[in-house]
Amino acid sequence: MIFTETPLSGAYLVALSPHSDDRGWFVRTYDKAAFAQMGHMADWVQMNHSLTRQVGAIRGMHFQHPPHAEIKLVRCIAGKVFDVIVDLRASSPTFGQWFGAELSATNQAALYVPKGFAHGFQTLTSDCQLIYCHSEYYAPEHEGAIRFNDPKIGIDWPLPVTDISARDANHPLLIPSFTGLLV
Ligand SMILES: Cc1cn([C@H]2C[C@H](O)[C@@H](COP(=O)(O)OP(=O)(O)O[C@H]3O[C@@H](C)C(=O)[C@@H](O)[C@H]3O)O2)c(=O)[nH]c1=O
Q: For residue 135, what is the domain's CATH number?
């Protein structure tokens, strides 16, 4: 398990180390001790799994407000996605910046998303499945989101958008009075 910090501090790409043999492979996807060395102490309290059918579909950019701000560990187990995070931490020198990486069933990479980040993705193949570990329970009354195409953030999505929920298409743009999440 190799942790590579992204340009947004505290967010890591996690490379796994599969053991391959004639039958296929075996891979450890979570290791409490290894994650603790990277600084992760929380427990995962919820796991979610999604399927997105169309190439070019976008889900995001989602987060939970404090006191339900959450850490996520995201992995793609079918297909390939461009996974994106946006730093919304009030005290962060990279507030408002985004980072994206390909996660796929083939590269087996995971993205560790700290509290205070919005998260979303675009499918690069059909029938993408993502698995999430969450450090907080789903708290719909604390759901927050920002618009995937907010010009202030300027995420460079690789494909034209082919599918998006009405809710995700209409999330608010960042307004000047929003100075970030206190996480
Ligand atoms: C996120 C979530 C949704 N739901 C419900 C609400 C709704 O009826 C249905 C679908 O929800 P959504 O449209 O929000 O699903 P989706 O757009 O896939 O939401 C996910 O998007 C990605 C980008 C993330 O980062 C995830 O944490 C999560 O927010 O599932 C739960 O019951 N529990 C949950 O934890």
A: 2.60.120.10
